[in-house]
Amino acid sequence: MINVCEILGTRYPIIQGAMARIAECNLAAAVSNGGGLGIIASGGESADWLRQQIQKTREMTDQPFGVNLMLLAPNVEELIEVICEERVPVVTTGAGNPGKYIAKMKEHGIKVVPVVANVALAMRVERAGADAVVAEGTEAGGHIGETTTMALVPQIADAVKIPVIAAGGIADGRGVAAAYMLGAKGIQVGTRFLVAKECIVAQGYKDAILKAKDSSTVATGRSTGHPVRVIKNKLAREILSLEKKNEDVEKINELCTGTLAAAVRDGDADHGNIMSGQIAGLVKKEQSAAEIIQEMFKEAEEIYEDRNHICRAGSSISGNGK
Amino acid sequence: MINVCEILGTRYPIIQGAMARIAECNLAAAVSNGGGLGIIASGGESADWLRQQIQKTREMTDQPFGVNLMLLAPNVEELIEVICEERVPVVTTGAGNPGKYIAKMKEHGIKVVPVVANVALAMRVERAGADAVVAEGTEAGGHIGETTTMALVPQIADAVKIPVIAAGGIADGRGVAAAYMLGAKGIQVGTRFLVAKECIVAQGYKDAILKAKDSSTVATGRSTGHPVRVIKNKLAREILSLEKKNEDVEKINELCTGTLAAAVRDGDADHGNIMSGQIAGLVKKEQSAAEIIQEMFKEAEEIYEDRNHICRAGSSISGNGK
């Protein structure tokens, strides 16, 4: 099987998660310069914006990078035109089945790596020619499915032949090593990159991640069928309260209007829509993207060796030798 | 740190999950004879029933076993009397903080291992004298919290000094090895033991587990604050529909009356309350409890070694060596 670094053209088998309004050229270039695959999130953006971001990223790094396509975006075909013209090395996709677009992108030499939340979609995108899949668990931030990383990764690994990249709940070397044990050949990381020094998100957003605990996130939007994991702040509580009252989707959408900008640009910890994974509780400091990548993989190797030591001491995986 | 096998008195660091109406002497003795810690689930049962089950289990095994205490049970103090009188080796607890009961049980030489779903409770039970904690992720079956195993285990491992035992999403060697990487020193397994040959649950229940896919479970009861993970059957859909309509808890409870018995005793795949973890999709055959335990740990060792091989080939954890 071709390995993930060969597919991505990167030094480390890590993809930066696509975060709407946050993942632009600065973060993407920093991750790519750090040896991972930086991603520009195109969801909610225009084709012109995307072209500009691709060109800026190219000015900031000579390493491969990618673009994330939100398949529900009304201008998705236009965005694909730009991606093909610019010959972006890798495309990740979210919110559906990219099947009908895969052939065209592959004709332009683009590697396609869909993000999926269930086995059935993983199998469909493999048949349509995807190069790898990101199996994303419900602990991830932003738009999510219902199955957890622990349950999803091995089930997708059993169902497809292409490499599986694990996402959701990974913010340190323990998560990296665990993902490999589950059958992943690479990882995607979002939440920890939110506090990368190069990430342009407002300080208030970063602070909300840095002070989060294990139970600081909640999934809003379950009642409307589009769950989104966010920090449990004033806004999130209001949304949940409307959902509990069975209010119209329009009323909920109205409440949410402008709240992503309030989070990303203004860092409004109360009224901003602060998307975050459950693993935010492990994220304790701002670092450069390169430091984050190196630290995670170094830790993963140390943990792997450490557990081996525990094994040899006869106290854990194989029982206590009695 | 004292290891989990020493605390439990077992050959393998594995606890059988407590499953109400299912986990009785037959399964508990089989797991204990297989080298794990078998558990009798006392929730919803009388003190007499529990004493009888403890005595039957002792007739069936000379190995250590445990009792699970459901802390919301109205007769919990009576059950603790029986546990102390019978000097049960280990007690696991669910649904709350066992703090005020821990000292008494420890005076009787009983090891206490609370099941927790968040960091705050893990810290509280450690202070109250717990010997270890089971950190249970939301992918587990039955009554659940909201944080996933991948996110919960490392955060609890950072917060307490006592050993952490991972639960939720573990049904094969990949899950075992991943749990160790996350910082666990042992595992608790429920769903896979549902199909143990010695498990007395009706065949219809076992068949529902054996044919489950990755997306076959759902959490009912979120709206009432008591989420329960079950197989998404006719009953589960009806409950969710009542919840969506904001019906009274009484009406939902009425619908659920007798449904656990319908599942456990009658194997009613449509109208039974078939509790199951998300990992049911990996459970493909009935085996003896001893075979399940041996296979999981053997696989875990093989997977650990296999990943090491991948590492040395330079294709994964440490990057591709470019």
Spatial separation of the terminal alpha carbons of chain A:
39 Å
Query: What low-confidence regions of chain A span 5 or more consecutive residues with pLDDT below 50?
Result: 311-316, 318-322
- Strand percent estimate of chain A: 5-15%
Q: What is the string of helix and strand elements of chain A?
A: HEHEHEHEHEHEEHEHEHHEEHHHH
As a whole number of angstroms, the C-alpha radius of gyration of chain A is: 19 Å
Largest interface chains and counts: A-B, 72 and 71 residues
Side by side, the strands of the main sheet of chain A go 1-9-8-6-5-4-3-2
Largest sheet composition of chain A: 8 strands, parallel
Topology:
Two copies of one chain form a homodimer.
Chain A: H1 4-8, E1 14-16, H2 25-33, E2 38-41, H3 47-60, E3 65-70, H4 76-85, E4 90-94, H5 99-107, E5 111-116, H6 119-127, E6 133-136, E7 142-143, H7 149-159, E8 164-167, H8 173-182, E9 186-189, H9 191-194, H10 203-210, E10 217-220, E11 228-231, H11 234-244, H12 249-256, H13 259-264, H14 289-312
Parallel strand pairs in A: 1-9, 2-3, 3-4, 4-5, 5-6, 6-8, 8-9
Antiparallel strand pairs in A: 7-11, 10-11
Helix pairs in contact in A: 2-3, 3-4, 8-14, 11-12
